[in-house]
Amino acid sequence: MLSRLIGILAVSCFTVPTHAALDPNDEANKPAEIMPLAAQSLLLDVAQAGARLVAVGGRGHVLLSDDQGLSWRQATAVPTRTMLTGVFFVDAEYGWAVGHDETILATTDGGETWQRVYFAPEAQQPFFDLWFADRQRGIVVGAYGAYFTTTDGGATWTGSKFDAAPIDAAAPEDEFAPDYHLNRIVPGGDRLFIAAEAGHLYRSADGGESWQTLPSPYEGSFYGLLPLAGDELLAFGLRGNLWRSADAGASWTQIETGTTAMLTDGLRLDSSQLVIAGLSGVLLVSSDGGASWTLQQLSDRKGIAALAPATDETVVTVGEAGVKRVALGEQP
């Protein structure tokens, strides 16, 4: 099952060094191997680096495509075999990837070569996702409320216990509230949003300096958010749950999806063409800005973890079956 929910320990507030002591016998400290079938192995995220696509996943695999996903090659200098769960580029050159053992990698050449800039295996928990405002300022989120920030391009990282103001400003804060897994962080206009465990959703209007807890339409975990035009927003998660907000998350309306598969990622190709992906090879496609949806299911029924655009009518999927190009509307 494709899931970002793996980890044991909570993160308390502290400033951490960028490198942990290295055990040469630990797989996490060995460079990723060049594997002939890497493009068909488990991959968990994909991002655009200019015209290039960069996918990451199991055993430290980083794959690069310069032809909109038609062909892939493996990056030859990745300093870990740790599972990589998220990747983000601010431009064609500068990018970062995160993964298990609180691993953060950085690249300045479009993903050709990578350096490990943070690593804390003693924490025994993974990072799940990341976002950068520019080449200097970034946020990483993960299991049990892990929340790390950098202001120097990832040279140093500060970890803190994630905190969000309650929905009702007059309500007392729960001193013993659980540390929910923070599964996905996405930008939407001048705001940031986080999708989290146990029905939790968060919004920031100041670049992540502070967060507000949003009203939640259900108690199951959210695995992704897809900002649309203006204040419109989609949130999705377990058992095919898909919800739409017209007011930046203040209220929600459920969308019938026709599936009980866990929904994992969303993509806005243009103002009207939307795609939501999930486990069991599920793709939900809308050509009218989300007013109606069509269920498309890949014949192999392999879980999809993330999406990237290829052409106007084609997307790149990554997941259990590796990387694929999928024509939207095409039925098996």
Report on the architecture of this protein.
The chain has strands at 14-16, 43-49, 52-57, 62-65, 73-74, 84-89, 95-99, 103-107, 115-118, 127-132, 138-142, 146-150, 157-161, 182-188, 191-196, 201-204, 212-213, 222-227, 233-237, 242-245, 253-255, 263-268, 274-278, 282-286, 294-297, 304-311, 314-319, 322-327. The radius of gyration is 19 Å and the shape is globular. Mean pLDDT is 90; it is low at 3-20. The protein is 0% helix and 42% strand. The two termini are 22 Å apart. Strands 1-13-12-11-10 form a five-stranded antiparallel sheet, with no helix packed on it. Strand 10 and strand 11 form a beta hairpin. The protein has a single domain (14-327), classed as YVTN repeat-like/Quinoprotein amine dehydrogenase (Methylamine Dehydrogenase, Chain H). The protein has 332 residues and is mainly β.
In short:
With 332 residues, the protein is mainly β. It contains no helices and 28 strands.
Topology:
Elements: E1 14-16, E2 43-49, E3 52-57, E4 62-65, E5 73-74, E6 84-89, E7 95-99, E8 103-107, E9 115-118, E10 127-132, E11 138-142, E12 146-150, E13 157-161, E14 182-188, E15 191-196, E16 201-204, E17 212-213, E18 222-227, E19 233-237, E20 242-245, E21 253-255, E22 263-268, E23 274-278, E24 282-286, E25 294-297, E26 304-311, E27 314-319, E28 322-327
Antiparallel strand pairs: 1-13, 2-3, 3-4, 4-5, 6-7, 7-8, 8-9, 10-11, 11-12, 12-13, 14-15, 15-16, 16-17, 18-19, 19-20, 20-21, 22-23, 23-24, 24-25, 26-27, 27-28
